Amino acid sequence: MSFSFTGKVALVTGAAHGIGRSICVELARCGAHVSAADVLRDELETTVDACAAAGGTCRSARLDVTDGAAVHRLAAEIGPVDILVNVAGGVLGQVGKPIEEVTDEEFAAIVAVNLTGAFNCARAVAPGMKARRYGRIVNISSGAGRSTSLTGIQAYTSAKAGQIGLTRQLAQELGPWGITVNNIAPGFIRSNPTTERQWESYGEEGRRALVADLALRRLGTPEDIAYGVLFFASDYAGWCTGQVLSIDGGKAMF
Predict the structure, then answer these.
(1) What is the CATH number of the domain that holds 77?
(2) Which of 13, 72, 106, 206 makes the best surface tag, with the fewest CB within 10 Å?
(3) What crossing angle do the helices spanning 203-212 and 193-201 adopt, rounded to 10°?
(4) CA end-to-end span of the chain, whole Å?
(5) Could you tell me the sign of the dihedral formed by the alpha carbons of 117, 185, 187, 8, in that order?
């Protein structure tokens, strides 16, 4: 199976490093014209360079996905988007704490970037996709959205579960226009400074236990997630919508 996105326009958020960068590179390698969006401007240029090294085309765009007006401006600037991949999210430096110690601001910030951001981006590209009766939206959730957070972050688990619900609802709503909406729930991936700190925090015994709990007995890579995106974005998945694909080495088998 080979993938071709020649002539397709893709918007990838959270594209500055890790999973988002790998998705940009793989889409660009397969011929898509990629817009890589993130709040981290300098790191975005590394993504652009990586896409070029893979033989693809990519432009960078600084974007805060929680700002609905900014998202609409970028979508208008890019023009019709064929493929939207919502990667932007994360824990914003938060660590697990008792619920009574979580502030309104901490909870709201994580929900905004992980859930509201995906809504903002889908809302911005949907009219163009409807007009062309074609579109692919892929949301990157988390194993936490299907189960619980490894680090006990209430807002992150809630937002990622909400994103899965948003995926299903949009799949139902947008399906009549030939637009598919799917979700990938990655397992633990060492993909950025935050996940590196998390990995180190487990200690040697905890790291061994985490890997031993995976059927495949290895951690995944950002590329493993990107390959799932290629499938959902392709014509091979044209009759596949509203689905959640766990790419996690066999951690969640349901």
Answers:
(1) 3.40.50.720
(2) 206
(3) 100
(4) 26
(5) negative
Spatial distance between the Cα atoms of 122 and 170, rounded to a whole number of angstroms: 9
By residue range, what is the domain housing residue 129? 9-192+222-243
Which residues are tagged catalytic? 156
**What is the tally of structural domains in the chain?**
1
Q: Kindly report the number of other CB atoms within 10 A of residue 66's CB atom.
A: 19
User: How many whole angstroms separate alpha carbon 29 and alpha carbon 83?
Assistant: 15
Residue 1: is its pLDDT beyond 70? no
- Give the tokens for residue 186: 């990655």
What's the distance, CA 34 to chain centroid?
15
d(CA 154, CA 80): 36
CA atoms within 13 A on the CB side of 73: 10
* Closest listed residue to residue 198, CA positions, set 106, 107, 99, 93: 93
Per residue in 40-75, pLDDT tens?
A: 988 999 999 999 999 999 999 999 999 999 999 999
pTM assigned to the model: 0.94
Name residues whose C-beta falls within 8 Å of residue 188's C-beta, 6 or more positions apart in sequence. Answer: 143, 150, 195, 198, 199, 210, 219, 220, 248
Query: Looking at the domain assignment, is residue 199 inside a domain?
Result: no
Is the distance from CB of 27 to CB of 10 less than 8 angstroms? yes
